[in-house]
């Protein structure tokens, strides 16, 4: 069972998910929080891995279930997994004992979600997701009957995130 605060940032390609997570990372760090991130690689195909001639990749390519390399305070890990189960990935990321786990993607998971919307068409699909706590729209996008923040209103978005980190926002849309 996950006991760390988890926030997903979801939206379609080029909606600004990575940029927003980077901004949230900076804010959380400036507030003394430790953060882990998880990204769903939704571009098709496998992830780019280090060169095959590295020792850790040789181990991995020869069948190691996992291969870890350590140097200068950084651990690099490659693991075989057929499930892609988000709870398992969160548990793995919690080995670093973060205060917060920020997730890019995994739209169908049941954690608090910030949804980035570029158009009404995006919203028509994304509004069906569970646990939406904030909708951020690109400039000029108006959604009827829903409270949103425009992406250009960074101060308001940052204030929202600060409240979320403090546990002051628990409403779902």
From TrEMBL:
Entries under InterPro entries matching the protein: MGD_biosynthesis_adapter (IPR052539), MobB_dom (IPR004435), P-loop_NTPase (IPR027417)
Gene3D superfamilies cross-referenced by the UniProt entry: P-loop containing nucleotide triphosphate hydrolases
Boundaries of every Molybdopterin-guanine dinucleotide biosynthesis protein B (MobB) domain copy: 6-136
The protein's name in its UniProt record: Molybdopterin-guanine dinucleotide biosynthesis protein B
Biological source species: Paenisporosarcina macmurdoensis
